[in-house]
Design a protein that fits this description.
Blueprint lengths: L1 E6 L2 E4 L4 E9 L1 E12 L6 E7 L5 E2 L7 E6 L4 E6 L8 E11 L4 E5 L3 E6 L1
Parallel strand pairs: 2-11
Antiparallel strand pairs: 1-3, 3-8, 4-5, 4-9, 5-6, 7-8, 9-10, 9-11
């Protein structure tokens, strides 16, 4: 099994910053893709940023220049640094990972979600 634990959400004023963390653990052989998504009630879950193995992060247009995704391979952890936050960034943020596990299967796992609230 593979588990994801997210942390770092909270309440921040517009213009402020937050950093989200997502730590993966379990029977992981390799990580193929890690991503951050967000969802507002009543709307679909949208990708915010994603990175594939050996690649560079790709960002949604709405967060380019403000959000930075990074990863610590030794810790199987991915981060999302969010700067210059806007009220429109308010959402539940989910971590997503695609891994190869010890049985050599591809697994997609979602984190539990963390709420980010940006006040105006």
């Amino acid at each position: 099994q593979v588990q994801l634990v997210e942390s770092g959400g909270g309440l921040v004023q517009a213009g402020g910053s937050l950093r989200l963390s997502c730590a993966a653990s379990g029977s992981i052989v390799s990580i193929k893709r890690m991503g951050w998504y967000r969802q507002v009630p009543g709307k679909q879950r949208d990708v915010v940023a994603a990175i594939t193995s050996g690649g560079s992060p790709n960002y949604a247009d709405s967060v380019k220049g403000r959000f930075t995704m990074s990863r610590d391979n030794a810790k199987n952890t991915v981060y999302l640094q969010m700067n210059s936050l806007k009220p429109d960034d308010t959402a539940v943020y989910y971590c997503n990972i695609v891994v190869v596990d010890v049985t050599m299967r591809y697994l997609e796992v979602w984190g539990q979600g963390t709420l980010v609230t940006v006040s105006s």
